[in-house]
Write a structure and sequence with these properties.
eleven-stranded parallel β-sheet; 11 strands; 12% strand; globular; 47% helix; single chain
Amino acid sequence: MLYTLRKPTRSLPSFSSSLKAALASEKLSHDQIVSLLQTTNPSEVEQLHCEADKLTRKIFGDYVSIRGIVEFSNTCEKACHYCGVPTYNDKFLIDQESILECCDFMYEKGYRNLVLQSGEVTTNERIEWVLELLHRVKTKFGSEKDTGMCVVLSIGELSRQQYQKLFDAGANRYLLRIESSDPELYASMHPKKNHSFERRLEALRDLKSIGYVTGTGVMVGVPNQTFDHLAHDIEFFRDEGYHMIGLGPYLIHNDTIMGRKLMKETTADERKEADQLKADITLNTYDVIRLTCPLVNIAATTALETLSAGYKKKALTGGANVLMPIITPKQFRSGYQLYEGKKEVDMDRLQTHEMMLNLMKTINKTPMFKRWNHPPLYTKTQSK
């Protein structure tokens, strides 16, 4: 079957020995990571989750870092096989005044982290537009740590020169998913035109060397993905030293190449079974990343809750420590869906904010407001 996470057939270290090694802060081998990732045994899953939760609380206390996302444009030069954003005919670019109104709302509520996300547009005109917006945000809200607004960009694969300009203008962090650290699997998710694994890797390394707090991530459960792929991804995060990790389950969008292929080649029962496995393994992946890369920030994504109700709560009581409520104006939300069935599309920003506060109450955690909360891995390396 095309649509499943495949387990290796070779002999692996036991779950218990692999977890013991992780708790002893040993550098896990590839096969030890696979052993932890692939477990579906309820007792083992609970052990893994509890240990990740203990470590998360040890490092971050009972706090969850909050970042507000404004998805400011669905125009994109790329056409990734899995992503629904480029399929929308009604393209938008939210005007800067409306974005600043979103920032006003966020700042008043205590948010000090703004995520500006869009499809990839590499023109000088777009970069100048973002530079102007950065200037306006920093001028209005300040650049000082914790009192000013920390700006996180997620606007795609740009040139080093463009990244440098944005950094010099005040951008603090950048999110760019590797999607897969395996070149062949990466290629299966992207058309050949305008896509290169080597260029994506170079872009990530550019961001980190410039000085950004750098985030990356993958999807869990894309076609032909194996547990070996996921283990390699975690080794990639660890060995490259990225500061923030965002990942979620792959979800189908019917108007994409990958979505149409899956709808044609799999049954509804197969997709349902795969979806549950993806949700469970995504939680495992959060937990294994925490044990393997303890000082990173890990975001619990909206996609996880879309797939299975209550799973965002589980993520934040395990390895995840970051939540990113959508602050995009309501009228634009339906035009920015990587996958179908996205949560929060029919909400306004106040409803999204209140939903986040209610979630915090149910898990007995405190949203961390009025703090930038750089990942400990970043602050550790900066102090050297």
